Each structure stands twice: as C-alpha cells, then as structure tokens.
Amino acid sequence: xxxxxxxxxxxxxxxxxxxxxxxxxxxxxxxxxxxxxxxxxxxxxxxxxxxxxxxxxxxxxxxxxxxxxxxxxxxxxxxxxxxxxxxxxxxxxxxxxxxxxxxxxxxxxxxxxxxxxxxxxxxxxxxxxxxxxxxxxxxxxxxxxxxxxxxxxxxxxxxxxxxxxxxxxxxxxxxxxxxxxxxxxxxxxxxxxxxxxxxxxxxxxxxxxxxxxxxxxxxxxxxxxxxxxxxxxxxxxxxxxxxxxxxxxxxxxxxxxxxxxxxxxxxxxxxxxxxxxxxxxxxxxxxxxxxxxxxxxxxxxxxxxxxxxxxxxxxxxxxxxxxxxxxxxxxxxxxxxxxxxxxxxxxxxxxxxxxxxxxxxxxxxxxxxxxxxxxxxxxxxxxxxxxxxxxxxxxxxxxxxxxxxxxxxxxxxxxxxxxxxxxxxxxxxxxxxxxxxxxxxxxxxxxxxxxxxxxxxxxxxxxxxxxxxxxxxxxxxxxxxxxxxxxxxxxxxxxxxxxxxxxxxxxxxxxxxxxxxxxxxxxxxxxxxxxxxxxxxxxxxxxxxxxxxxxxxxxxxxxxxxxxxxxxxxxxxxxxxxxxxxxxxxxxxxxxxxxxxxxxxxxxxxxxxxxxxxxxxxxxxxxxxxxxxxxxxxxxxxxxxxxxxxxxxxxxxxxxxxxxxxxxxxxxxxxxxxxxxxxxxxxxxxxxxxxxxxxxxxxxxxxxxxxxxxxxxxxxxxxxxxxxxxxxxxxxxxxxxxxxxxxxxxxxxxxxxxxxxxxxxxxxxxxxxxxx
Amino acid sequence: xxxxxxxxxxxxxxxxxxxxxxxxxxxxxxxxxxxxxxxxxxxxxxxxxxxxxxxxxxxxxxxxxxxxxxxxxxxxxxxxxxxxxxxxxxxxxxxxxxxxxxxxxxxxxxxxxxxxxxxxxxxxxxxxxxxxxxxxxxxxxx
Lengths: 772, 142
Fold this sequence. Notes:
Structural class of chain A: alpha+beta
Radius of gyration of chain A: 45 Å
Distance between the termini of chain A: 35 Å
Strand content of chain A: 5-15%
Number of strands of chain B: 0
Helix content of chain B: 55-70%
Radius of gyration of chain B: 21 Å
Oligomer: heterodimer
Distance between the termini of chain B: 54 Å
Shape of chain B: elongated
Largest interface: A-B, 32 and 31 residues
Largest sheet of chain B: none
Number of helices of chain B: 3
Largest sheet of chain A: 5 strands, antiparallel
Number of helices of chain A: 23
Helix content of chain A: 55-70%
Structural class of chain B: mainly alpha
C-alpha cells in the first residue's frame, strides 16, 4: 500500500539465458512490459555492438517492406487499371443503352403524331395514301450542340421533303454523375429508299449514332423491356466491380500493417540484445535489468515460458544483486491516475522512493482550478464534454491530431475539473453570471422603509443608489444564506467590494494551507529516509516559522469573520499584519482582541529566532562531526585519501544551507502572495462572464416586441460560441496553467526533489502505439 | 389574441407543415434506399457536412434547455433577472398598476424565451436529420 504514495521498490537482477532462447525470452519480456534493460556495454559505439548486423538486417527489412509495399502496390495498380478499363467500357455500354431507352420512349410520341398526320391526310384529302413501305424513318441520338447544323444540312439535302422531330434527353442525375453530355433524340421520316445511304453518311459526319427502331408498337415494347433488363444487369456488374476493387485494397492494407509491427518488434529485440553481454563460450547471454520487487515472480514465469517456446532445456536464471546505483522511479498508474502522474512528471520525475505528489494532486489540482474557474454553468458544459470524450476515447484516437491526443490523455483531469467547478460555482453562486435563489435570501428590503427604517417615498426619487443597513431590524435576518454567497449580492452595485475581500482572504487561507501540507510531506520523506536529524533541524523550524507568521494571519482572518464589528471602525488585517512586523503599536490603532500586542510580539520574535536555527545549526553539526572523525582518522595514513574524497568543503555546505534558508523564508511571503492569483483569475472569469451576458444575451432579452424571439435565437448562438471559445477554452487553459504553476513551484518546492529518472520498460504495446 | 400568442401559433403551424414534408421525404427514402443507385437521390436535401450538423445539434440542445429555463425564471418573476427586463421610468411611477406593469414585462420576456426555445427545437430537428443523412451518405461510400 505504501507504493500508492511513493515509487515502487526496484531491484537489479542479473539474467542468464541461452543464446537460442534469447529471442523468445526477450519477446516474452517485451509483451510483459515490466523490465528495463541496463546498458552493459556503455563504452561500445553503435558499430561495435554484437548484434549490429541483425539490427541492420531489421532496418533493411523495414525498407524492403516498404519496397514490398511498393511492389504489392504495383501489382495492385495493374489490377486496378484493368478494372478501371472494364469499368469504362461497361459505362459506355450503359450510356448507349440509356440512349436507346430514351429514344424508344420519345419515339412513341413521334409515331402517334405521324399516325395523326397520316390519318388527317387520309380524312381531309380522301386520297388513300397508305403508310407506304418506301417511307423510311431513321432514329438516332446526336449531341445537342450539333443539332442545328444537322438540321440545316438535312434541309439542303431533301429540300424540305422530310419530317424531322427531336427532343432533349432528360439529363437524369445518374447520367450527370457518369459524365455524359447533353444529347438529343431525333427521328427523320423521308420518302424513298435510296435516301437511307445519304442519311447514314450525314449522320456519320455529325457523329450521331443511329439505332434501328422497330416499326410496330409491340416490337418497340419488347425492345424497351430487353434494354431495361440489360441496363439492370450492367448496373449490377458495375457495382460488383467497385466492391471488388475496394475489397482488394483493404486486404492489402491489413497485411502491410501486420508485417510492419512484426519487423518493429524484431528490431526492438535485437536492440535489447545489443545491451547485453555475451560470455566467452558464446552460449550464454547475461543481461541486467531493473525490475519492481513485487513483479519478480511474473518475470520469472515469463522467462520460463520463453525458454519453453524456444525448446531449450535450460531455464533462465534470475539473480538479484545489491547495488549502490539509484534505481529508476516507477509509479504504477491506471487509466485514471495516468494523466495526473504525467503532469507531475513533466516538471521533474521524483527521486527514487520519494513521496509522490500525484495522489494528492488528483484532488488539489482540480480544486485549485475550480477556485479560479468557479461557474456552475461552465462547469456543467465542461463535465458533459469530458464525459463525451471518455465515452468516445477509442474512436477519437483515430484522428491522430496533436490537440486531440492531449485532450484524450487528459480526459479524466477535465472531468474532475468540471465537477469541482460545479461545486465552486455553487459556492460563488454563479451560473452564467446569474445567481440561484434556492434557499431564500437573508436580506430583505421592505424593513428599510418607514416605519421600521429611515426610507420614505421621497428617498427613492432623490437617490440613485441606496444602501441596506443591516443594523435596522429585519433587513438582515441574522442567519446567513445556507450554502454559498447570498443571491442578493448579484444585483448589488457594491458586489465587487464584498467579493474581492472574500476571495482574497480565501486565497490566502487556501495558499497557506497548501504550503503547510507541502511542508508536512517533507516530514514523511525524512521519516522514510531515516534522516531524523533533519526533522529537528529543518522540518520543525520551518513549521514554526510558517505557523507563527502565516498561520497567525489565517487566524486573524477567521477571527475577524467570526466576530461582530462595526464596519466604520473595523481594523484592516493587512495593516494589522504590517504593524505587527514593524512592532508599531500606537494607541489610536484598533486591535481585534485583548492581549493581541503581547501575542504578536512573541510570535514575531519566535519566527525571527528560527532563521539562525535554519541557517547555522545544521552546518555547525556537520563541522563538529568532521572534526571528530578527522581526529580519529589522522592516526592512520591511508584514510587520508578516503577523508579527502569524502570531504565536501565546509564553504559549500554553508552556502547551500544559506540558499535554502533564504529561499524558504522569503519564499514564504512571495508564495503566499502568489496564491492571490486564485482571486485574480476568479474575478476575471466572473467579469468576462457578466460582460458576455450583458453585451450579447441581454440585448436580445430587452427587445420586448415579437422580433425579440428571433433576435434571441441569433444572439443565443453567438453567446454559446463566445462562451465556449473565450470562457471555456481560453479561461480554462489559463486557469489550468496557473493551477499547474501553483503545484509545481509553490507547493512542490517545500518537499519535492524531483531528480530521478523515469522507468522505461521494454514494452511492445507502447512501442507500437508511439509508432502509430 | 395577443401578438406573441399569434406569433407562437403561426410558428407552430409552419413547423407542423415542415415536419410533414420531412416525414414524407423520409418515407420516400425508405422506399428507394440510396444503396441501389436509383434515379431518386436524397442527397439534394443535404446541405451541411457532418461536423456542422453535429455542432448545430449540440447548440440546439443547449439552446432549448437554457432558453426554456430562462423562460421559466422570467415567468416566475425572479428578482435576480431584474436587469434583463426592459422597464422604463414610466413603468415605475406610483400608481395602482406599477407592479403589474413590471410583471407583464417579465411575462413578455418569458414568452420570447419560450418561442426562441421552440425555434431551437426546429433547428435541432433539422440538424438531427442532417446528421442522419450524413451518416447514410458515409455508409453508402464505404
């Protein structure tokens, strides 16, 4: 359980395994992802390594793979070209069939017309003029732009002894999609058999396509049906071709990915083998790994499995060795804690077995963010967004954008930030810059009027601003609002005076508490590393210094909040504090409680006394122990060398201690002031939110006519877009950054060393993920 | 009938006609599913991409919820929203109907909010149809 708050205990293990089983064993370890291989040949360059040939081979293979990809693609390309050619011919046939189809439909009308003409001819002239066999008709399709010229040529040829009808083919969307041009259907009726050749020649010249059109209605219907069935068949063939093409491409893509990952794994294995030592008999490989102590059994099992797979008879040997080297820092994380650990490690990876601030950060970071963000409407939008990202995390990872990767990595952080923001929004009573009145306000205006209070009707006409006086009975009910800021402050014009004072004091309280917590964590570190001397030389003086000055400041704030004061004569806490430091006690200064002067003088003297304790005691003790050992050692000659080696100069120790002391003492003041950014950003957010409401949404609300609702629709859209971009994204990023800075600098410089190096195990999962 | 009420009824009427049109379009869509390359193409009704449609849907949902709640708060004469009500000096004059004037103004703004919420219901429905059409088109290509 202690591993939750500090990094895991690591051990250095020597592995011995046979050369034949090397590949399988390391492959198993790679799948496990729990061991980090130490470089046993640090002096060898890349070219001198044992398996340099194999690594080169793997790189070759990668190149060949891409070449193979090329060759596969070449084959694919040829196939695709054939498919495309067939596709084109099929399309051409389809277009021809469509033309025939439209032709057949249009000629229906023409034939009816001709029959009518013949019939009328028949009836009016009483000449029996049967539809003669030598009256010829020709039907065809021609491009629309060529039609006028075509008509003129026919006129010159036949001197008007012909009937020509034409109609445009309705350009359906399908035709347009397949890239056809506008075409016209035409049909010519001429007398005489010999003219067929002439017409054919003319049509050839104009590149019109002629189709034989059957004379009778029955035949035409049959032809129409057959054309329809042919078209359906063609369409099906085209669709199948397209599907086949798509299938071929996807199958090839899958294979390529598989080969790629295999080659990467092999390359990683050979790279790892380069880090190991081969012994003289060339049969045994020696490796040194860092491994968590609790996972030794798992590693052993994996090695046994690997050696069994390779068929070797000898099981690998694990030998734990003691070492003075610093192991890497390994913090076990799950999906939820991963993000928080990442933001701590970004500043500095913790020293081995130092206390890990990440578990505390899970709560304090979103909380400090929320103090600066503080709006329940915006918090709700942020929470819903985070919930959506969490539910869609896998499908969003495919976008492979830098920004989306960051958002997906921090999705749980955003969720917690949103939830905490709803909480602080309820405390500030701020939702899109408006307050909720859930429990009933504690302030009442009516008692200010006559006969209870001083106001009359004329007072309302004279003054623009009126102040509610809480000492008039009934104005203030005596019980504060149940949870959060009273909603009456939202419509008060001196809202900011009240809220600024409240938020500044709250920021100081939160800041000093956070820093005291940091100092306490240093105590935990001292206990774990058994530096008991440091507890009394560092932790206790630091704690006393902070508590006597800044702890007392918090006490003053809380005390002043709890007692009843007249606002005209209440002392300012800032002035009280300044006067305390300057020992300035004049009789006209108002004090908060009896005995304050004595207590304050005592506290300041205590704090000042702690400074030389921090500065001088520890170096002095080191000096004394050195003197003692030097007396004992000076008798033996050879120990001089050791003495000389162990000696850091006293000057360095003093300087180091002085820097540390000054950093702590001055840092106390500057860091406390730094926490005032909690107030500043919260004020900025509230003001931006109010400005957005007043300048955008209120304009729509104040229009009372019927047009008001339409304006409201448009303005609400603008309000939503601006809220998301300015208040959520910009202010969110800003508050995130400042909360992070408060953690990294003001909190962590009380206890965190951060000089370790990260545990980077051989893991195929992370390898493939990063490559993708 | 008061002016806002008339407007509300006319908007509801237009919405019902529009929804009937959309229902008939959807019926045709089922009879000629886009996967069979028939002449009838529903793509002509698609006028925005998938991202714009999704944004429109999210905005409409937010608009409906927030404007409906604002409407409720205005019609219950919440004091916190006093600055959003367009009252003038004349409404505040001493008289028997001063309070009632302010309440009427509150109600007017509340009705405006409700109408805007109804319009957002329509926009949301439209965006939802666009999202569905986009999904169908995507399905067709794959």
